[in-house]
């Protein structure tokens, strides 16, 4: 049942739970600044995509990633493993490195804090502090000393749990993630691993700031019912009646066939089928008509804004015309999507609607809203 708020009062009888198959998630979970759903309940507990390991092939290669308010260093260590650390110095809390996007990664032999030169190795272990830390006040001697006066085991960098699917590197901020990446990804893991993702190089990145709650955007990918209204040009080339939306515990896959694709021998999919995958709640992987693919990162700013970071990977980072057309189409779909969800959110945030009414066939969106509720209640 649709429920309206009466003036500025909240409807007291709206259930905080989704108890009915046609109840949407109460609107306040999308609009209330006090509901710390985005950063704490989802992005701090569920696996989030960090970046492509191909971008950091050698020991010491690194990039930084912001997830909500958290700053993370993702680096390849001396043994070749990709690891992640909070970009926070144990001394007085400074950031250790400058913003270094995965599109322009850096290389460092050690991680040295610019504030007072505490220095860690690529395993995050504290290796040295300046002599000034112990020996003098007014005449600092900044030569390295072995660590003195503090326990190096307790004062290195704080590691963030990482795991990978092929070259796709994921982070989890929970002390003890409730489910492993493999458990969370389910069949998405083998599906992604069956694709030659590692053979592709990063080619382009586009960052967009979108004025709506990230779940408004994510929910919009639960249904194809907006295609006709929002993506009219695109669907003229799609064989929609042969499309299928596959729903799994934490991911969905839209299988579709693009007529332009049928003759394309280079494409990486079998059966002339393209895929669009959504992995709750931070990552979308697009697999389209070109010999390559895109990944989207959803990164929350606050309850009413998020960034969509779209990365495109191709066999040759010098784009072919087909690749460029793939990106143009992807960008156009994004713009159409942004317009739709911003319009939706603009009205929702007015507070008039307390809880939306879903159609009886909108069980996939209902399931998405249940995931949000599950995250709240965890
Ligand atoms: S805050 Fe990093 S060395 Fe002081
Ligand atoms: Fe869409």
Q: For this structure, what is the CATH class of the largest domain?
A: Alpha Beta
Ions, cofactors and other ligands present here are: FE2/S2 (inorganic) cluster, fe (ii) ion
Q: How widely separated are the two ends?
A: 26 Å
Please, what is the CATH homologous superfamily of the largest domain? Naphthalene 1,2-dioxygenase Alpha Subunit, Chain A, domain 1
Number of helices: 10
Q: Give the helix proportion (percent range).
A: 10-25%
Structural class: alpha+beta
Q: Proportion of β residues?
A: 25-35%
**Which outline best applies?**
globular
Summarize, please.
With 378 residues, the protein is an alpha+beta fold. The chain has helices at 28-31, 37-42, 132-135, 181-185, 187-193, 214-220, 227-230, 232-235, 321-348, 363-377, and strands spanning 3-4, 23-26, 48-52, 61-67, 70-76, 82-86, 106-107, 111-112, 119-120, 126-130, 144-146, 159-165, 168-172, 201-210, 244-247, 251-256, 274-279, 283-287, 292-302, 305-314, 353-357.
Structure description:
- Helix 6 runs antiparallel to helix 10.
- This protein is an alpha+beta fold.
- About 3% of the residues have low confidence.
- The chain folds into two domains: 114 residues, Rieske [2Fe-2S] iron-sulphur domain (Rieske Iron-sulfur Protein), CATH 2.102.10; 179 residues, Naphthalene 1,2-dioxygenase Alpha Subunit, Chain A, domain 1 (Alpha-Beta Complex), CATH 3.90.380.10.
- The chain has a seven-stranded antiparallel β-sheet with strand order 3-13-12-6-5-4-7.
- 22% of the residues lie in helices and 30% in strands.
- The longest helix is centred in the last third of the chain and has 28 residues.
- Bound molecules: FE2/S2 (inorganic) cluster and fe (ii) ion.
- FE2/S2 (inorganic) cluster (FES) binds next to loops.
């Amino acid at each position: 049942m649709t429920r309206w708020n009466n003036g500025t009062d909240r409807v007291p009888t709206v259930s905080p739970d989704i108890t009915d198959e046609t109840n949407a998630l109460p609107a306040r979970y999308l609009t209330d600044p006090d509901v710390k759903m985005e950063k704490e309940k989802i992005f701090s507990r569920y696996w989030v995509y960090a970046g492509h390991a191909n971008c950091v092939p050698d020991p010491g290669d690194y990039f930084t990633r912001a997830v909500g308010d958290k700053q993370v260093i993702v680096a390849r260590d001396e043994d070749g493993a990709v690891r992640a650390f909070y970009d926070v110095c144990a001394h007085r809390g400074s950031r250790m490195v400058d913003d270094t996007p995965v599109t322009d990664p850096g290389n460092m032999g050690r991680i040295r804090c610019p504030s007072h030169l505490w220095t860690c190795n690529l395993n995050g272990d504290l290796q040295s502090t300046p002599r000034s830390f112990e020996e003098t006040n007014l005449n600092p001697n900044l030569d390295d000393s072995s660590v003195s006066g503090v326990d190096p085991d307790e004062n290195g960098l704080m590691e963030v749990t990482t795991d990978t699917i092929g070259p796709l590197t994921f982070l989890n901020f929970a002390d003890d993630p409730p489910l492993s990446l493999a458990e969370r990804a389910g069949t998405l893991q083998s599906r992604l691993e069956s694709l030659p993702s590692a053979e592709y190089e990063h080619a382009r990145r586009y960052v967009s700031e979108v004025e709506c709650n990230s779940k408004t955007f994510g929910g919009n990918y639960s249904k194809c019912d907006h295609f006709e209204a929002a993506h009219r040009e695109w669907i003229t080339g799609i064989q929609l009646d042969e499309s299928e939306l596959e729903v799994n515990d934490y991911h969905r896959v839209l299988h579709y066939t693009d007529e332009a694709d049928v003759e394309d021998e280079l494409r990486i999919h079998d059966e002339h089928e393209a895929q669009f995958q959504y992995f709750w709640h931070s990552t979308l992987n697009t697999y389209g008509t070109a010999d390559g693919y895109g990944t989207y990162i959803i990164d929350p700013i606050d309850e009413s804004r998020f960034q969509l970071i779209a990365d495109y990977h191709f066999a040759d980072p010098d784009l072919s015309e087909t690749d460029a057309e793939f990106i143009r189409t992807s960008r156009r779909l994004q713009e159409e999507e942004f317009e739709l969800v911003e319009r939706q959110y603009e009205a929702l945030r007015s507070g008039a609607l307390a809880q939306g009414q879903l159609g009886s066939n909108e069980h996939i969106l209902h399931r998405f809203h249940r995931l949000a509720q599950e995250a709240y209640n965890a």
